[in-house]
Predict the 3D structure of the following.
Amino acid sequence: MPFTIIIPHTRAKIPYHLLCIKIRRLIKLYSVINLQLYSELEKNIQYFEELFVECGDWVKRKIPVVSNLSRYVYVMYIDGMVDRSVLELSILPRLMASALKPPEDFFHAPIDLLTTLKEGGMMTADLREETDPDKIISAVMSGDTAILVDGTATAILVATRGFPNRGVPETNTEVVVQGSNEAFSEVMRFSTALLRRRVKDPRMKVKQMQVGRRTMTDIALCYLDDVVRKEVLERALARIENIDIDGILTCGALEEFIEEDYQSPFPQTQITERPDKAASAILEGRIVIIVDGSPVVILIPAVIDSFFQSADDYNQRWEIMSLARVLRFASAFFALALPGLYIAVTTFHPNMLPMMLTFKMAAARESIPFPAVMEVLIMEFAFELLREAGIRLPRPVGSSIGIIGGLIVGEAAVSAGIVSPIVVIIVALTGIASFAIPSYSLVAAFRLSKFLIIALSAALGLLGFWIALILLLIHLASLKSFGLPYLFPFAAGDINGFTDFKDSVFRLPIIFMKKRPIYANPEQKIRLNTEKLGNPRKKE
């Protein structure tokens, strides 16, 4: 029969069976925390062989290294995850060739096998000692080779990672006219090397972590230690460390955990596949998060202005790129508001249009059986279908489907009297405008917000159109990215002395951008020394 135990001093009452469960959990937790290797090699072998049972890609071998005293080492690794040339040329031959010979006074002074192995048993400098079995397992699953040494509760981990990869690919989504065509790779070490090649500063730190109980995905945070804002770095580290999930495989999954408001369709982190763009972000004081297995990286913080900047902006003349920036902001407005504005004007306020245009639109819609809002929704749905089909199909076929399919569907819809020609033009202009925005994440947010504007415009006309825009603006004003206002520099621009407007809607010459953007540490604002540029260039 269950009974209750009163804990002394606290007078707290707890059922006996619950107390037993808590004690068992504490004992289990204590045993896990204090789990260490054994000094006996056979016990370690038994532990790992039971753990990796039925793992066909797990390779192990017991090798004698001091034959006259039966001293052994146990080598284990994952096939396909290691560089076989390093393993077979630098590690195994040295061990199997009896390179470790006991000294003449061995029987009077026992040999330190672990030290001897490290100093003369392997022709590689990238190795370390480890006593925690969990860290040993994580290293082996990541491509390292573990060597268990007889007579000691310590293993040697040798860096032999060499899993399959496609090298350094070319950019696919962020194509530029001039500049580098290199893109990040799925291998995290390749991605960090691409950044280190561009930022040759020892103050650029690469802090590595692991996320996911089962996947143990490697994550690297790259930043300039003296330029980054410490509060932003602390927030990023805290949010990543608080992730408790079985697996993280992509940057998109990690984004949802570190964003301020994961329910908002607007991205609060920036995604890029270009190493030069990521290196530029590091110089500005931002943090680059690399997820192993993902060909893109995350840039934090990110304000809305950063999504309109392209890597090509700094490869060409500032006058031309300033015009391109203006076109991007105008395209964003058209991609968001053009269908709703058309519905509001044609349905509720046709007197705002020129008389000749009103007559032409009325004549074109005379045989259309649907209202304007249904026309727009039909064409928007067809356009979204074509967009998704073009993405999922192979690239040569996808581009053909997007162009030919749009022409055929639009022409057929007009000929069948389902929609009017002006609606086809409106939807086509909306789609073209969305393609002019450099960030795909921001385009996706505009695609979703567009239907809110269409709904309110169809219900209330221009009043609903302006209500939708105001609601959207209020939502954007409420967002923050790691403590920074999302609408910066258009809102709260005075925080940084309005200097960020020099690289906003217009891209001024680089010699005018003496100070770093808002992302940087306030103590490291100056990035350009104008004293050596001559008197005409000293002015900001």
Remarks:
- The chain has 16 helices and 14 strands.
